[in-house]
Design a protein that fits this description.
6 strands, six-stranded mixed sheet, mainly beta, 71 residues
Length: 71
């Protein structure tokens, strides 16, 4: 499945970047998602894409990570 700009997709966050974005992989492609944390299963929208990685916006948290606290 090829994801294009503005497409929505599901992703599990597996790591965090130095600037605090959640990192998830889909078919070997790396996504950086602001406001997502390790363990979240999310729905994201592709915003900016490079050859090996892309940036996505959090649309909604499907399954929150254990330890996620609501504001």
């Amino acid at each position: 499945m090829e994801i294009r700009k503005n497409d929505e997709f599901e992703l599990t966050i597996e790591d965090m970047s130095e600037d605090g974005a959640g990192i998830g992989k889909q078919d070997g492609y790396i996504w950086f998602v602001k406001d997502a944390v390790i363990g979240d299963r999310i729905r994201a929208r592709a915003m900016k894409m490079k050859k090996n990685y892309g940036f996505a916006r959090l649309v909604r948290v499907i399954t929150p990570a254990k330890g996620r606290v609501e504001a």
